Amino acid sequence: MNQKNSFGLDYCFKDLENPIDLFKEWFNEAKKTEINDPNALALSTSDSKGVSSLRMVLLKDFNKNGFIFYTNLNSKKSKDMKINPNASMCFHWKSLLRQIRITGLVSKVTDKEADKYYHSRNYGSKIGAWASNQSSILQNRDELFRSIDDYKKKYPEEDKVPRPKHWSGWNLKPYEIEFWLQRKNRIHERLKYKKKENDYWERFLLNP
Ligand SMILES: Cc1cc2nc3c(=O)[nH]c(=O)nc-3n(C[C@H](O)[C@H](O)[C@H](O)COP(=O)(O)O)c2cc1C
Q: In 3-state terms, what secondary structure has residue 52?
């Protein structure tokens, strides 16, 4: 029988007061067990009419202040987040039978942070950030390839491609995080953290 924590949950839930510490534990395990992209997450946003929209992005950093991903600031998701800064993330690690859901408020990362990450990317990805007008209509693929060629001519030196102003990162600062473990007969285990005042996180179980 597995060891239990104080809630009677599987020991993988640990006994941690801060959900970011638990996220780190689970994420480190997922890095060992997922066949690819353990940092892939579904990001949900919603527009001015309340219509939600969902897509995958890659987590590039996280700490007690939030969860960071990078994208085009003119994309559909960024337009949504400029209107409504409430957004949600969902990780599903099939290899671990675990899910983590995070809800919070997004804000843009600093230019310094965005520059640092942008300059760590390979040349093709940097050019792609210039060439692709993400989420706008593309007439045909040639239009995009011409744009890539044009930017390669404009920025031929691999380490001298500036970061486009329309490309940056978003930081989701969480106020709710739920950890979920798949169990037999759908009697799953759920532990939810809710942020209270002074950075204190309340913890409670949810029915599966
Ligand atoms: C596994 C995976 C990871 C992805 N990571 C990113 C990412 O980090 N940033 C990004 O802009 N798009 C990423 N995409 C593409 C997005 O899912 C999406 O197609 C794109 O960002 C446009 O979304 P939007 O029109 O809702 O803004 C990823 C797709 C997949 C399948």
A: strand
Kindly give the number of the ligand 1 atom that is closest to the alpha carbon of 69: 8
Output the CA 55–ligand 1 centroid distance in Å.
6
**Distance, CA 194 to ligand 1 centroid (Å)?**
28
Check residue 134 and report its DSSP letter.
T
Q: Are residues 196 and 102 in the same domain?
A: yes
List 121, 186, 190, 203, catalytic entry: 186
In a domain, 3, yes or no: no
Query: Which CA distances in Å does 2 have to 11, 28, 96?
Result: 7, 20, 15
- Closest ligand 1 atom to 75 CA: 27
Do residues 89 and 67 touch, judged by C-beta distance below 8 A?
Answer: yes
Note down the domain range covering 19. 11-110+166-205
Q: What is the pLDDT along the chain (208 residues), one digit of tens a residue?
A: 567 888 999 999 999 999 999 999 999 999 999 999 999 999 999 999 999 999 999 999 999 999 999 999 999 999 999 999 999 999 999 999 999 999 999 999 999 999 999 999 999 999 999 999 999 999 999 999 999 999 999 999 999 999 999 999 999 999 999 999 999 999 999 999 999 999 899 999 999 9
| Reported pTM | 0.97
List 192's β-bridge partners, or say none: 178, 204
